[in-house]
Design goal:
heterodimer, A: 414 residues, alpha/beta, D-Maltodextrin-Binding Protein, domain 2, 2 domains, two-stranded antiparallel ribbon, 17 helices, globular, B: mainly alpha, MetI-like fold, two-stranded antiparallel sheet, 70% helix
Chain lengths: 414, 341
Amino acid sequence: MSRAKRWSAVALAATVAVAVAGCGGDGNGAATDVTGEVDLQGVELQLMGWSSSAAEDEALTRLLEKFNEETGANVRFNPVPEYDTTLQTALAGGTPPDVFYVDSYKLPDLVDAGVLAPIPDGVLTDSEGIYPSLREAFTYDGVWYCPPKDFSTLALVYDPEAFAEAGLEPPTTWQELRDAAEALTTDDRAGLVMGVEYPRWGVFLYQAGGGLTDPDVTEMTIDSPQSREGLEFIADLYAEGLAVSPSEVDAGWAGEAFGKGRAAMAIEGNWVVNALAQDFPDRKWAVAELPAGPAGKATFTFTVCYGVAATAKNPAASWALVDYLTSPEGALAWTQDFAVMPAHESVRDDWLAKWPDLEAFLAGAEYAHKWQFRPGFADVVGVFDEHAQAIVAGNSTVDKLIEATDSAGRDILG
Amino acid sequence: MVTLGQRGLARAGGRGRRNHLAGWLFTAPALLGLLVFLVLPILVTAWVSTRHWNGITSPFDSQPAGLDNYRELLTEPGVRRSDFAKALRNNFYYVLGVVPVQTFLAFVLAVILNQRFLKGRGFFRTAYYFPSITSSIAVALIFTFLFQINGLINAVLPGGRVNWLDNPNGLLHLLFRQLGMEQPPAWLAETELLGLSLWEWLSGPSVTLTAIMLLAIWTTTGTMMLIFLAGLQNINPSVEEAAIVDGATAVQRFWRITVPLMRPVIFFVLTLGVIGTWQVFDQIFAISFGGPQKTTLTPAFLIYTQLFANSKGGIAAAIAVILFFIIISFTLLQRWLTRER
């Protein structure tokens, strides 16, 4: 390019930048340096997260390479195997990564410790289209901290051939679930396999109108007739042998049990699709929404967001990266190769075009409950899990579970 | 004569001082390493146990807690205290099961391998030591595979299908049930210690914990065997020969000559075993994650969950300090039991 042309190109770019910067800001004090055009040339950023497969690694690296090309930045993805311990060490040591994954479960702990920066106004280009339940999952004390990168929900994975043989339709109510499990249980195959822990059993409590706690996690609601109804429904399924725990059928988790053909139905999330494709490619599967209980439909949503450290050395650049990754286009690009779902309603149909069999998971976004409590509450969930295992082993009763969990929760919640 | 001697002494004194200095210089790097990476972290941990640390921000920014963390673990009724009690109970049975068995087995193997007439000692030594150098996580995963309900262990066991990996039934409870005691007597079920009833304290290790104990014994017997072998080879063979000449049988030789001469080595192996078993973590993390029903929960695993899942760094540090005192007490008790009489 000739010298004159180069200089006029620079002048044009500078004018555009100034103009856009002028109309990008919104006068919110410290936030003005974060909005508008951000110069990312040569900026080094570290994105820390985890990777459940090499393919996921590759997909994110491709996305980041595209970002690096377009903006001239140098963003590095740092997947770590033991994410919680590495992140906490980095935060406690004062050298946090610029952007990092935040599971909705960990959000309260990080916010209470003051290490997460809330989203400044105007940084996200399209935040209106994010599902309200997901936005809610990352809002703590009324402040929205980070946009979700994707989400998964729980649904009922079933064996379409077994259902066709037995002449059944996927169940839509509790009674139909029970009937289907009964019809499909044979000597070497269980009707339903489900992990024995609150992240699975909890959906039944919600479907009955109860739950472990109220939505704000300030008081325990496990000792209510609705929660009791949900618990008794599940306990009966296990007691009658219609439902089994994964270890009873020599599997590490419900997805493996289903993949090996040891069960006709499993309650799992989107990740089971990737696992089945990888480990059990010959297994036929289909997905249906979880059956509705007396109080309607309910499921859990498991979601992760991109958080920016409160002490990030270049918050403007970090938020620009987050915006790129969580925009509808970025979210769609990321969720093309894996069965996780984009958090924007606007790209719903595009995603379904690629994954038409997974509509049941996506439908769950309307009525999903977030997987989140308060710091220190993990002990109470541990008590629930312990007694749930006892119920399945035949050592305990629903009453004892409710009593122990209620008193432990009341201790911790104060 | 005297002047020569005095001069000699003076020279020795000068060399002595230089030797002193040289000694300190040579050990300084190691001492510095020990101080920075061992002593300092222990002191900081003890200090953190008196703070409310969330494990996420710097501990120096935390609020003081006094003895609150210890109170939560030891005196206040609640889930944290009962979890800690379960961890102590489980680890106590683990120590009781693993240490005597692995010490005895290692000693017997070492005595066998020490016999001069045994062919292929090198091969056997390698074979017995091999489990100790393999990755504990890899071994744990293989054991999970073997102990499945449809796995190899159940295939060769005469009893049939035992649920190894998801079985919370304590061995002592199973024994009591065989002896006819289905329900505990009232005084056992009512009295509580640290939030657990005495009946729960007397549960014995659960079947899953027993599987993990078998794994641990298999892994560490080799290391202890090598230590015993080294100790046995230090015994002068003429002592044995003299005993044979005096008419001692093999059993008499074993109990009256070998064992007493090996006393310091036995103490060393027992101490190593106790310290190692009170800190068991790898196998729990890889196989059972504290379940089923918290019967494989151990203090080391509790430290991990309290710090990373619960953001309670102060409680984790307090557990570590209490564990330290437990291990010290066990070691002192052992020292007293194996003292020279």
